[in-house]
Design brief:
CATH class of the largest domain: Alpha Beta
Strand order of the largest sheet: 3-2-10-9-8
Distance between the termini: 64 Å
Structural class: alpha+beta
Helix content: 25-40%
Strand content: 25-35%
Shape: elongated
Number of helices: 11
């Protein structure tokens, strides 16, 4: 049997009436994902397929990491490879004859968004860009991306090359689980084996008035079709967030892919945090106790119950459900597990704790006597009745 208890603690917890309003942004497509809680908390057209520019290189990089056995293997850049790089692509500055490692090429792909490095990884590891693209598409199917297809490794506009903010977020979340990818993605600069220093493009897209300190890692992108794009990783009040914005504008030399992201991070920082919903030792339920030295056993929260929520959270959305024994008696022992407490917010289970008896429950003999008074009387008189019955039988037999 289960019962749901709703706690409304008006004096301790404020109830907000007005809903949060996210800041106005220029980007046409947005998705904000709380990686810690595995939850999308805001989106605008995040499932709309479009060009994604150099965010494609996220897929290129994680595919290379999974396909190449030794990232520190040395390879040589050739003229033939460099000729495959389109004139309008961003470049890291590689030259024919450079001897580099695959690891170098991945840093040069992500940080300065070098198409020369990206094409080099594809051709040197798989024989051709086409072969490598097949592996990229195989990987996204394995991850479960259903609205993405690649035809190149750089993200330059081509027919049938597309994705969505939602799919890019899923791809990035998958990729960040790989320590090598995360190390590359969160680097701000890196020196290649040939001495060339490469830097993250976030510096190119930022200005002195823009605080990008909360952006732990990022990948930018731009094409005519995609507009200005940005993916980022941030830590906001102890939660990791992925923010993907697509199709932003550049106005008066201000890049709104980065400006929008910085504004969204500031908004999240000011409005999302761990909220205390139930204090430790809060009474959850009382159970009746039979024939013991106590009449009620109090079930209390054994810890502070917190949840990461927006500042307009509503305590009325908190539900507490106790599942377990509905009554106890002196036979229940200390340290015995008798049930669980489930904590729900908006009908979503977010925490649970076991209910374990933490005190000795003793028998109360007076209560036992009172409850079983008639039974005891009967039990006491049974031997007398038996004796009298036997005596009467003996008397009858003598007659």
């Amino acid at each position: 049997m289960k019962k749901r208890i709703i706690l409304i603690i008006i004096l301790l917890f404020p109830i907000y009436i007005e809903a949060l309003e996210y800041p106005s942004i220029n980007s046409k497509v947005v998705e904000i994902y709380d990686m810690t809680d595995n939850k999308v908390i805001y989106e605008v057209d995040s499932n709309k397929a479009s060009s994604i520019a150099s965010l494609t290189k996220i897929a290129t990089t994680i595919t290379a990491i999974e396909e190449i056995d030794n990232l520190d293997e040395k390879v040589t850049i050739t003229n033939e490879i460099l000729k495959t790089v389109r004139w309008d692509a961003s470049k890291a500055g590689l030259k024919a004859g450079d001897v580099l490692t695959y690891r170098d090429l991945l840093y040069a792909s992500i940080l300065p968004s070098g198409a020369d490095a990206t094409n080099s990884v594809a051709i040197l590891s798989s024989g051709s860009i086409e072969n490598f693209v097949k592996k990229m598409n195989e990987l996204i199917k394995k991850i479960g991306l259903t609205n993405t297809n690649f035809v190149n490794v750089t993200g330059l506009d081509e027919n049938n090359h597309y994705s969505t903010a939602s799919d890019i977020r899923k791809l990035l979340a998958y990729s960040l689980k790989n320590p090598t990818f995360k190390e590359i993605y969160t680097a701000k600069d890196y020196t290649l084996s040939n001495g060339l220093k490469v830097e993250s493009t976030i510096k190119r897209y930022s200005n002195s008035n823009l605080n990008t300190n909360n952006i732990l890692g990022s990948k930018t992108g731009y094409t005519g079709e995609a507009g200005y794009c940005f993916s980022s990783l941030s830590n906001i009040n102890s939660h990791e967030f992925i923010i993907v914005v697509l199709n932003a504008d550049k106005i008066n030399n201000n890049y709104y892919n980065v400006i929008d992201t910085v504004n969204l991070i500031a908004f999240l920082n000011n409005n999302f945090k761990e909220e205390l919903l139930v204090k430790k030792k809060t009474l959850i339920k009382e159970l009746p106790v039979e024939l013991s030295n106590i009449d009620k056993y109090q079930i209390k929260a054994t810890k502070d119950i917190k949840k990461y929520l927006p500042s307009d959270y509503n305590i009325n959305n908190l539900n507490i459900e106790y599942k377990g024994l509905e009554k106890l008696n002196y036979k229940n022992k200390i340290n015995e597990e008798i049930g669980v407490i489930n904590y729900y917010y908006d009908n979503e289970l977010f925490d649970t704790e076991k209910v374990i008896i933490n005190k000795v429950i003793k028998i109360d003999y007076i209560k036992v006597l009172k409850k079983y008074y008639y039974v005891i009387i009967i039990l006491l008189f049974i031997p007398i009745i038996i004796l009298l019955t036997k005596k009467r039988k003996r008397l009858k037999s003598k007659k």
